[in-house]
Design a protein that fits this description.
globular; transmembrane helix; 139 residues; two-stranded antiparallel sheet; DUF2809 domain-containing protein; 6 helices; 2 strands; membrane
């Protein structure tokens, strides 16, 4: 097997082109399970999104395990920081970009979906790595 960084990055970019709109659509979805989709499904996509972004720049085998772990830790810290309400953060949190990156309210249930998203991100990165390796046998 050979390591093909450019193929892995290309597949990562395609993945980002899929996961980003799906994550954004969770914020405007209306239909069955709307509350869950609007408030929790996006957390899963958010974790996968950050795993993919970091993997695009740190395309190594060891990053496959490290990235989801650190994404979970970092987003958990951001969740805890939602308990802190200084005016400069509150102003940013109520912009569209602020809501997407920092969130607006602490919710302990988010940790469950961060964990699920990080796990799925790890699986996704593993698949990208496998697809980026040439598995063809030569005769």
């Amino acid at each position: 097997m050979t390591y093909n960084k450019s193929k892995i990055r290309r597949l990562t970019l395609i993945s980002l082109l899929i996961i980003t709109p799906l994550g954004l659509l969770t914020k405007i979805y209306s239909g069955p399970a709307q509350f869950w989709v609007n408030n929790y499904a996006g957390d899963i996509f958010y974790q996968i999104f950050w795993c993919l972004i970091l993997f695009f720049f740190f395309t190594t085998h060891s990053a496959i395990k490290q990235i989801p772990f650190w994404v979970f830790i970092f987003t958990s810290i951001i969740e805890i920081l939602q308990l802190w309400k200084p005016p400069f953060l509150e102003g940013f949190r109520y912009t569209f970009l602020g809501r997407l990156t920092l969130g607006t309210q602490f919710d302990w249930q988010d940790f469950i979906y961060y964990l699920i998203g990080s796990f799925l991100g790890w699986l996704w990165l593993r698949q990208l790595w496998q697809k980026g390796n040439n598995n063809e046998k030569t005769s």
